[in-house]
Amino acid sequence: MPKKAIIIGAGIGGLSTAIAIQKKGWNVSVFDRTSSLTEAGAGIVLAANAMKALVKLGVAKDVVSIGAAVGKAEIRTWNGELILDLPTSRQAKRYGSQSFLIHRGKLQSILLEKVEEASIVKLNKQLASVEQNNDKVIATFTDGSKEEGDILIGADGLHSIVREQLFGTLQTRYSGYTALRGICSFKDERYTMEQGGGFEAWGPGKRFGFSQLGQGQVFWFAAINAPRGETISSNDRKQVALNHFNRWFEPIQTVIAATVDGDILHHDIVDYEPLPYWSKGRITLLGDAAHPMLPNLGQGGAQAMEDALVLARCLAEPHINVNLPSSLQEYEKIRKQRTTKIVQQSRRMGRMVQLENQLAITVRNSLLRHVPNKILIERLNWIVGHKV
Ligand SMILES: Cc1cc2nc3c(=O)[nH]c(=O)nc-3n(C[C@H](O)[C@H](O)[C@H](O)COP(=O)(O)OP(=O)(O)OC[C@H]3O[C@@H](n4cnc5c(N)ncnc54)[C@H](O)[C@@H]3O)c2cc1C
Fold it and tell me: What CATH number is attached to the domain comprising 16?
């Protein structure tokens, strides 16, 4: 009798897990509280390690055909002076793949199509609680329905209910900055669609990034030092972004201005202290639920995919009788050290890029201008060159 996994969350982590463990022969049911799996206004970078994971999941070709390869990756000051021009083709050679940018909703659709029988993904299903005994795990949803399985995987994101059920309520750590993100149609001869990629501009306590997204669109984000919890109504976000980046080099103002009013996402950027454990009995965590990280290295999605592949490897073929809690412990043991290091590195990176002090900024920029490409490439190899 095939074993059954219940997956809570149909984000990048949950869908990747469904694909990976279905390949092992497991039955899978995925539940998500949303009514549709698209997120307006956001792109996602898929670094080389994410692309290698997508190859294993069998969807890399679809991502390549819809997304945009990152050909150009510059870092500039707020007024446009070049700090670094990252050697993207040498990086791709060293890391084993180019990076791509893709619309997050499109990535989810690609993953969803790869799940055998899309009907196993059930929407409008919000998890309320989980319980387990020696033989099974039971998920209860807010509509009162229940689902039984052999294991349960909490891929329910940053504010995971599964995590809360296992380990209680934990406090988020505010990064000190808030993010605005948008997508628009935009053309610029300096940053062409054919070349792909774009730039990040760093000013005191603020950063703006822009990258080709494919299909004639660009994705931008802004990270702004700010007190925690300030709300900006969706109709004011464009003007707030224009004000923050007033006098920054072009095309920053033009890109923001080209974004549809009301279509800009706003989130305070937070993570959690790394958890000592991810699993209890037949239940484990994956992706942001297990290791929420600041987005400064663009690795959250990539790490969720790596988790999915390792978890599938740790789960034996469903007809083999093994101790499932031990398989979940093994997955956690393999993944925890790497993801904890990336959580910490993302925090350090954030402190470096969101500096406010002018002297510190000058020192940082001049140090970065003198780092040889070879060292830049090698420093990231343990993260981006990784292959599960
Ligand atoms: C500003 C920003 C920029 C980022 N940029 C990048 C990037 O460029 N590259 C990258 O790799 N990563 C990036 N990330 C990180 C990345 O988005 C996340 O790490 C990734 O989406 C995590 O996937 P996940 O599946 O674990 O969680 P999520 O994508 O959060 O999915 C969780 C799912 O669970 C569902 N859910 C939640 N609670 C319940 C419940 N109670 N019941 C049922 N369903 C539930 C949600 O609806 C959601 O669909 C960025 C993050 C931010 C905030």
Answer: 3.50.50.60
Predicted local distance difference test score (pLDDT) of residue 316: 77
Give me the pLDDT at residue 94, please. Answer: 96
Q: Tens digits of per-residue pLDDT, 76-87?
A: 999 999 999 999
- 145 lies in some domain: yes
Whole-structure pTM value? 0.96
Nearest residue to 201 (alpha-carbon basis) of 261, 237, 247, 264: 247
Residue 31 lies in a domain: yes
Burial class (CB in 10 A: 0-12, 13-18, 19+), 172: middle
Residue located nearest, by CA, to atom 52 of ligand 1? 295
Atom of ligand 1 nearest to the CA of 101: 8
| Angstrom distance (rounded) from CA 16 to CA 235 | 34
- Rounded CA gap, 380 and 295, in Å? 15
Give a yes or no: residue 212 inside a domain. Answer: no
**In this structure, is residue 250 part of a structural domain?**
no
Give the pLDDT score at 348. 97
Residues with CB under 6 A from ligand 1: 8-14, 31-34, 44-45, 50, 126-127, 155-158, 161, 179, 181, 267, 287-289, 295, 298-302, 304
Instruction: Give 272-286 as a DSSP string.
Output: -PPPS-S-BTTEEE-
Residue among 156, 213, 380 whose CB has most ligand 1 atoms within 8 A, to mutate: 156
**Boundaries of domain holding 77:** 4-172+271-384
Complete DSSP assignment for 155-172: ---TT-HHHHHHH-----
**Number of folded domains in the chain?**
1
25/99 Cα distance (integer angstroms): 31
Segments of the chain with pLDDT less than 70: 1, 39-41
| CB 335 within 8 Å of CB 355 | no
Question: Which three-class secondary structure state does DSSP give residue 211?
Answer: strand
